[in-house]
Write a structure and sequence with these properties.
Elements lengths: L4 H8 L4 H10 L7 H17 L5 E3 L2 E14 L2 E4 L9 E11 L25 H8 L2 E6 L4 H9 L5 E4 L30 E4 L1 H12 L3 E14 L2 E6 L4 E11 L7 H20 L6 E8 L8 H9 L1 H7 E6 L11 E5 L5 H11 L5 E4 L16 E2 L8 H6 L26 H19 L8 H19 L6 H18 L5 H20 L30 H30 L5
Parallel strand pairs: 4-5, 5-6, 6-7, 10-11, 10-12, 12-15, 13-14
Antiparallel strand pairs: 1-9, 2-3, 2-8, 4-8, 9-11
Helix pairs in contact: 2-7, 7-12, 10-12, 13-14, 14-16, 15-16
Length: 581
């Protein structure tokens, strides 16, 4: 695509100056304790008011787990540590014998990734793991991710120590509960203390574990329901004001969190200014929200919003765009850009039109980063923003992190003012703005549902092959083929734009949940990244199972196929109800 004259007028108004003031302010304000988070919300509200932009402030109670102190006692001395959010609070200490577990570090990239790397080196099953860790405290390389914490707890471990890859210790989280817990979620609250240490201290602990040694983990966390503030700006569209794009990011951070996510908060502020000043040029509305509870509540702010505004989001939200960690130093690459298939071309063309020679790679979004709207069924793009090129990261000897533009200051006290880069920030602001405009402005919503169907067909073929006859995919293949043809016909017809737009939203409500979630709509899946078409993903495991487990897996697959076919048939009936001319 090329930038239109109207888009250029919007882009030419983007400035760094106002946004930079908010970054400078936040660089002096830690924002993870509840009272400090609310004070930061007041700063955002004041900045919006100074620009003449009306703002609504929601004030929900959010369930937060705030780490205060952590340490590990070894040989009578204390080792510096950090407790991930939602680690079990054990101020009096939990003692046990250390056991060293080997782990594939590439599979323990961060607290949002899976735990496949734990299995190997003599540990192949849960029984193997339990034999190693029951009644002990394992130490291994990686991050204190939720799936790992849950696994160690299930195996009978008394606690968990993770050695981060470098000299710094990173904050994180270790719960799979997404947002405010419901009654059914409480069983998944971690019941063991978890502590992260630096790589040098981790190596020391691993050496001592090999010699049979005891340690004491102490963690102190403040946990409970806290009133928090959510600033929300609504910029009304001129001709279709009821429908809107949700643009959002978190403003709570670990310590002062400049690159994660003061730069994102500043981006939202600047886009609010530009969009508000040019609101008469918008077709659809734009809602901009700043979330608390991202770090200490596992996306509690965005989850509360999804719960409490679910009907409005269901009926009128055309897409959600997440803004996290833009404008960081050295972050000139876009090879880890998150987008759903139907939105991928929007991200790609927007980046290319701002940065013509950009390195762009589109990824399926992880179950992370305030993607609290999958179970409603919102088309989505972006999560993390620009990042440093892999070659530069390797040259600097940096390990892989999930934010801050690839800077290893991520989730540490070092995420300070030098992490922000005004030139990169200006570029990222323009990319976000252009992406918003390309959804807010067209007469017909620009989503490419044929791309989504192509992705789903590919997933089905893979699962069918991996199941190796354990399930009958015939009905699923046939329904998907018919569905795809109907989509092509309807969107290439002269069906009125208003019907096509409503159809796009209705298709999202069907396809996003079936492609990204297991639980019913308006619930929230656990914070563990799932494979595509999660209700069918058991097909990828069947060949590894035998006996009773195989029979159970085949049953799960049949139920998943039934659910998948029902969803696609709902889509077929929807499309067949639309006149072709």
């Amino acid at each position: 695509m090329t930038v239109t004259d109207l888009e250029k007028r919007f882009l030419d108004e983007v400035r760094v100056e106002t946004a930079w003031k908010l970054i400078e302010l936040f660089s002096m304000k830690p924002r993870w304790r509840p009272q400090d988070v609310n004070a930061a919300a007041d700063d955002i509200t004041s900045a919006l008011s100074a620009l003449g932009i009306p703002v609504q402030v929601c004030e929900p109670d959010l369930y937060l787990s705030v780490p205060l102190e952590a340490s590990i006692a070894l040989d009578g001395a204390a080792i510096r540590a950090k407790a991930p959010s939602s680690s079990f609070s054990a101020p009096d200490g939990v003692s046990g014998e250390l056991v060293h577990l080997e782990a594939n570090r590439s599979n323990l990239r961060s607290y949002t990734r899976d735990i496949d790397g734990l299995f190997g080196g003599g540990i192949h099953t849960m029984a193997d793991l339990s034999e190693r860790v029951r009644g002990k405290i394992p130490v291994l390389s990686g991050f204190g991710n939720p799936a790992l914490t849950s696994l160690i707890e299930q195996a009978g471990g008394l606690g968990l120590i993770v050695a981060n890859p470098g000299a710094d210790v990173h904050w994180g989280t270790c719960t799979t509960i997404w947002g405010n817990p419901g009654l059914a979620d409480l069983a998944r609250k971690p019941r063991i203390p978890v502590a992260a240490v630096s790589a040098p201290d981790g190596e020391r602990l691993m050496r001592r574990a090999d010699e049979t040694c005891g340690v004491v983990i102490r963690t102190t966390l403040q946990e409970g329901w806290f009133p928090q503030k959510i600033p929300v700006v609504t910029i009304p569209g001129a001709s279709e004001p009821d429908d809107f794009i949700l643009l959002h990011g978190h403003y709570d951070s670990w310590d002062v969190g400049v690159g994660d996510n003061a730069t994102g908060d500043a981006t939202l502020l600047e886009l609010a200014r530009v969009l508000w000043n040019n609101r008469l040029q918008l077709r659809r509305s734009v809602k901009i929200a700043w979330w608390p509870g991202h770090s200490t509540g596992r996306y509690a702010g965005s989850t509360w919003f999804a719960d409490n505004f679910a009907q409005e989001l269901d009926h009128h939200c055309v897409a959600q765009i997440n803004c996290d960690s833009p404008g960081c130093r050295w972050a000139t690459s876009y090879h880890h850009t998150s987008a759903f298939s139907e939105c991928a071309h929007i991200a790609t063309t927007s980046i290319r039109d701002v940065v013509p020679d950009a390195d762009i790679g589109i990824e399926r979004p992880h179950q992370a980063g305030d993607y609290s709207f999958n179970n409603i069924g919102l088309s989505s793009l972006y999560m993390l923003s620009s990042t440093m090129p892999d070659a530069l990261r390797k040259e600097k000897g940096y390990y892989d992190v999930s934010g801050c533009g690839g800077n290893i200051a991520w989730h540490t006290e070092n995420d300070t003012m030098e992490i922000a880069d005004p030139d990169v920030l200006l570029t990222d602001m323009k990319i976000y703005l252009l992406s918003v405009l390309r959804i807010a402005m067209p007469e017909v919503l620009p989503f490419r549902w044929t791309d989504t169907v192509s992705e789903i067909k590919h997933t089905l073929r893979n699962y069918d092959q991996m199941a190796n006859g354990a399930g009958d995919f015939t009905a699923a293949h046939n329904a998907t083929a018919k569905f795809g043809k109907l989509i092509e016909g309807v969107f290439s017809s002269d069906c009125p734009p208003t019907r096509k737009n409503r159809l796009s939203m209705d298709l999202a409500r069907i396809l996003v949940p079936i492609n990204f979630t297991r639980l019913p709509r308006f619930e929230h899946d656990p914070a563990v990244t799932a494979k595509p078409l999660p209700v069918l993903s058991v097909a990828s495991e069947i060949s590894k199972l035998d006996g009773n487990l195989r029979h159970c897996a085949v049953t799960d697959l049949m139920r998943g196929l039934n659910r998948y076919c029902a969803a696609i048939n709902d889509g077929i009936r929807l499309l067949e109800s639309i006149p072709s001319t």
